[in-house]
Each structure stands twice: as C-alpha cells, then as structure tokens.
Amino acid sequence: MAFTLLPAIGRDFIGRKSEVDRLVSLILKPTDLLYEEKKGIALLGKRNVGKTSVLKKIINLVEKEGIFCLYVSLDDLTDNSQQNFVKRVVILILNTYKSKLGFEFNVEDLFNTPMGMLDSLLKNLKRGLSEELIINLKLLLTFDREKKVDMNSVFIAMFSLFDMLAKETKTKLLLVIDEFCGLRNLKDGVDSNLLFEKFKSAVLKYENTLLLVADSNKPACEELLLRQGSIFEGFFHVEDISSFSKEHIQKTLEKNSGKKIPENALELILDFTGGIPFYVQFIGRMLGRHGFVSANSFDQKIVSEVIQDFLEQEANILFREQMNRLSNKEKLILVCMIEQDLNTPSSISKEINYSQTNVRRFLSIMEEKELVVNTKRGVFEIQDNVFKLWVKNLINKEVKN
Predict the structure, then answer these.
(1) Is residue 1 one of the residues assigned to a domain?
(2) Which of 7, 81, 151, 289 pairs as cysteine with 52 (C-beta 3.0–4.6 A)?
(3) Does residue 108 sit within a domain?
(4) How confident is the model at residue 295 (pLDDT cuts 50, 70, 90)?
(5) Residues 177 and 193 in one domain
(6) DSSP string spanning 251-304?
C-alpha cells in the first residue's frame, strides 16, 4: 500500500472512527441536531490535519444510505470571482442530480444554450419541474449573459436551489463546503457579510438539506462561527479534528510500509510532524523513496536523515511561495520569533526595535494568513511546526555561510 498526499479514502483511511461515527449519526438522525437547536455541522481543525479525509469518509458512508452529497471546496478555486463560483456550484449540483432530473446532455453546455431552447429543455424533462424551480434554474444558467448582473439575486437563487432540488426529487441532500470561511474571499459582487447572511437565511428554510462545513482558519472561524454576536453564533454543532496520536502515526507508517517503527524513531516523527497526517504521509513516502525499503525497520538514524532531507528539499517546494508572500516586516517578526524564541508583541517589539502596536498589527495579519495562532491573550505561536523548523534550518544555513 502506497503513502499518499491526497485525502485518505478507503483502506488508506486510518483513525478518526469516533469522530466519523458521531458525525454520520448526526447526519442520519438530524433530530439530534434539532434537539441541540443547531442548523448544521462545522468541522474545525488545523490545515492538513485531515478534515478533507474525514469529509470524504462521511460522504462515502452517507451515500450508501441513499443520501445525495454535494462537495464544494473553496481551496480548489482558480478563479475566485463570485460569478465563477456560482457557475461552478451550479454545474456540481446539476451533475449530482442529473439522473434524477433526467438530463441527457452536458450540464456545462446549458450556460450557452439559447434562451428559447433552454426553456424548452427545462420544461420537457422526464421529471416535471415546478415553475419556481425552472425560473430559478434559468436565472442561474443565464445570469452572466447580462451586462449588469444582480449577484444578490443570483446568490439567493443558488442558496435556494439545493433544497428545491432535494424536495422536488424527494431526496435528502448533504451539502458539504470545505474551507467554508473562504466564501468571504470571493470577489466582484455581494459584500461578504451580506453573502453569509443570505446563506444563513436560506439554510434556516431547508427541509431536505443538511449543511456540513469545514475550515482551518481560526480567526475567520472565530469571527463568523464562534464569537458572541457572530453571524453564525450558535448555528452549528461544532466538532474539532485534532492531530494524530502516536498510535495513529505508528499504525499509518507500519500499515503502509510493512515495517516496524521503533519507539525512538516514532517519537522523532511525532515531534517533527506534530501529528499532522499530511506530514506523516510525506515522511513515510520519503522513507521508502530514500532506499530504505530493504530494511526491516526504520531506526532513529534513518528517520533523522529523512527529516533533514525533507527540510533541505521538499520543504522548499512546500513553503517557499508562502515565505515570498510575506512582507519584509512579517519576515523580520517571523525570524525573531524563531531565532530568539519569542512569542509576545512586547518582547518582539523590544528585540526588533519596532512599536508594539505595529508588531501586534502584523501578527494579526500573519494570523489571518494561518502562519501564527493566538494561543492565549497576548501570546502568538507559529502554527505549523514543520514550517518553523524549515525557517530555522534556513537561518542556520545562512549563519554557517
């Protein structure tokens, strides 16, 4: 079995059984959510902690129960305009319901179909659609033909479409949105707060659709979902996805490599990866790739060599662009935090001779970029330990040179 950097599915999916079972139970018996007075489920956790793998596993399980599932990821967008997002979602939902609606044509072609022909196609489907749904679909399939687009009406139509399709086809729909807070980064149209308000209003009316969202941006989640007075305060049943335990790391590595992992080597991998599944898989793949396949086990020396190789090579590919997007002041603060082991605005301010107010402002920006996390009042820590070690490795190389 090979190591994979893609979301784990099937037999590659290890751990998370209790989280998955609990969430699937809530989805199949939403009366428990109603008892909690919740309207959806939110899955929160660090980036690369395995949220997408959990989402895919949940989708796989609930589809077997006859529930239709629509998965939308804000991370996959190459064009983050609101118009492009709507078109993409409409294509996904219509393809999801293609067989139920009796579509015998390419859904994407509908966006270029002449209005008269489109009207005829929608009215003559095997499954008869209500006039309200036909009007809704025509708006969503033709809105970008207009010189001036009313995106407010378009979003209302899209948010309504999910449950309208589910009700008219007598099905249940699980609407899954990965990196949910990324909706606020969509450009050219409706104000993001208004967008979320419209979405919330639509979800409150859903009868056949359940919303499941996931996100890794802690400040955005606080602002939108968790903080008192936030738009979605009390709206979601919240589940936190934590990092892998040592036992899960061991099971992943030994299952995929067929080799034993000694305790000291396992501790080294845990310390380095912080239990983030993405990095565990990466290290596992490198252990095989670096010619250690013939060994009966991966000892501490081998693991140390692989970790150093990772910091010298693969980490450059993973993190170089992220580093280049930082301003000079952000880089200065980052290096100061790592080199001097500082984590408060006041201590960083003294070290770099820069005002505490400005240091705090830049730390807030870095938190938005998911680079640091505000762990408690006035304390900021670098969120990704592997990124931190990579920067530290760069600093050490510069000192040696």
Answers:
(1) no
(2) 7
(3) yes
(4) low
(5) yes
(6) HHHHHHH-SB--HHHHHHHHHHHTT-HHHHHHHHHHHHHTT-TTSSB--HHHHH
